Amino acid sequence: MAHDLIGNVGNTPLLRLATLTASLPGIEIYAKAEYFNPGGSVKDRPALNMIVEGERSGALTPGKIILDATSGNTGIAYAMIAAAKGYKVRLCLPRNASMERKRILKAYGAELVLTPADEGSDGAIRKVREIYATDPDRYFYPDQYNNPANWRAHYQTTAPEILEQTQARVTHFVALMGTTGTFTGTARRLKKELRDVQCISAQPASGFHGIEGTKHMPTAIVPGIYDPGLADRNVWVETEDAYKMARRLAREEGVLVGISAGGNVHAALMIARDLVAEGKTGVIVTVLCDAADKYLSEHFWDDPE
Questions:
Q1: Is 260 an annotated catalytic residue?
Q2: Is residue 43 flagged as an active site residue?
Q3: CA–CA separation, 157 and 46 (whole Å)
């Protein structure tokens, strides 16, 4: 059945990572392969939902420029969808965003405003607020960090897909947090449908880290959609462990994914090892946020294992 571009957002495969769990009896780890979305990442879901909601509410009308802060993937999703729908896009992103991301954004026709690398995504957030305040009538500012249409995209699509693809067998869901939309929406829906499911948030272990698109909540501008009471527990992920897992996934599973995806699978493996140590079984689901094509210029791929 043929779809237009936007009709292909969602319904991504759920991959079983069998090699990683070969020595862990009673454990299954699955990952949503979100790089199958047309924009190449999990962010296609919330970007589409925020734009559609903006159109529905009248906040986004023809001639307005879509403006937001991004570390890359949401911006790419905005730019792709805007190109398909006929809108212009202006994006603030950190100067150290990967070369590939900047080139993809420019290819889609997005205007980029680069912000200081050492300020991370928070610097981009501050800059976009400044731009919007100068001429609010000119822009549609979805504000992905504070827009409930972000987490609702995962409540309405990601979580139901996980339930269907696991036949509701999922026992644990784990995801790193950036805007927190993926974790918040998916966890809320899973908890509504499954009484005993455990939802575990993950964060970079320190404020200065290399896991693009994620936030260390104790030192970051905390997103308005973040619900600190939602997670059953939180795990801390070192940047080097995310790098190592990205390399492992490519070499052992044939799955070539980005840094946050590596961090997510590392967190899932932490949960798996805890379960085995406690003599328990589990069906753990996480998210492969994007593929590695936006990170191939990064030097961590060169490290021998």
A1: yes
A2: yes
A3: 10
